[in-house]
């Protein structure tokens, strides 16, 4: 069974420990995104250990279509398949169903859509999503929900949220059933529910109250960072968090930039994931405490400095900006790999600094300092 221990609060910011069957997660935490059971950019799970990763996140939909969740189960589950012994969170596939599938049909039972790989017809509902995630054997499974477009009408959003609540109850029932079966890989798999409602604060609050009553292992805020402004996102977080249980993890899905994370922690969020560090790294955009830099810029051609002075990641310990820029320009895979390793290390250690600041009761001051620092290169026209 899982247990979330709230160690300290600093304003609304939370510092906790989440005990799971695959180990303890120190929160706030950034989960490194390995969509198809791999971090894009030729990063291995052995690398993840070295750069301080606590949780790896994989995608239910992508693993269902390739290689197939039944194959992963035959190989002993996702942990064994990818050689990772720490916690894994699998998202439910809901977001991909709604974002990748142009042609889809939503009914009470679930959603029918076409695979983006081979066009074959797939049906996914709460029971199917739980079955796939059970086959994967992840530590944390996400409930199947509808991630409705952020500009949906109030009526559509209300109907969608009501259906998502009914789907959540079905997820709970199905997970209980699956965890009781003799051949289930992880009989202690836990479920997080997802709050939806776009930017309708009242719909969000009502939904938060309804799902909080189900006493789940954790709660996510979904459907943000999909087109609304940062201010709208922060406003929704401020409205929703007070209605989610403080003694459970709060997960802001798909967010975001270092500044987004710093702001959301101050508002009570303690789980994050985002593709930015790996996606940006593959394009030569690397994070530093002074902001993001583009290694393709000519100014780095003869720059003997590491990406960030004092950084202990594998890239900064061994190579210069000049060399990594050369690799990127020459389309050598190593350049992409080093940038992704640096960015993930940066994110993982930003979270370490955040936890330290909350421990010391100086989070607000720390957040202001770090957000100011992040603007340095912008102010110097360094990008």
Automatic annotation (TrEMBL):
One of its GO terms (cellular component) is cytosol. Zn(2+) binds at residues 311, 313, 316, 342. It catalyses: 7-aminomethyl-7-carbaguanine + guanosine(34) in tRNA = 7-aminomethyl-7-carbaguanosine(34) in tRNA + guanine. It is an enzyme of class 2 (transferase). Binds 1 zinc ion per subunit. The keyword Glycosyltransferase applies. Residues 254-260 are annotated as: RNA binding. Residues 12-372 form the tRNA-guanine(15) transglycosylase-like domain. Keywords: Glycosyltransferase, Metal-binding, Queuosine biosynthesis, Transferase, tRNA processing, Zinc. The keyword DNA repair does not apply. Substrate binds at residues 91-95, 145, 196, 223. InterPro entries: ArchSynthase1/Queuine_TRR, TGT, TGT-like_sf, tRNA_ribo_trans-like. Catalyzes the base-exchange of a guanine (G) residue with the queuine precursor 7-aminomethyl-7-deazaguanine (PreQ1) at position 34 (anticodon wobble position) in tRNAs with GU(N) anticodons (tRNA-Asp, -Asn, -His and -Tyr). Catalysis occurs through a double-displacement mechanism. The nucleophile active site attacks the C1' of nucleotide 34 to detach the guanine base from the RNA, forming a covalent enzyme-RNA intermediate. The proton acceptor active site deprotonates the incoming PreQ1, allowing a nucleophilic attack on the C1' of the ribose to form the product. This is Queuine tRNA-ribosyltransferase. It comes from Bacteroides pectinophilus CAG:437.
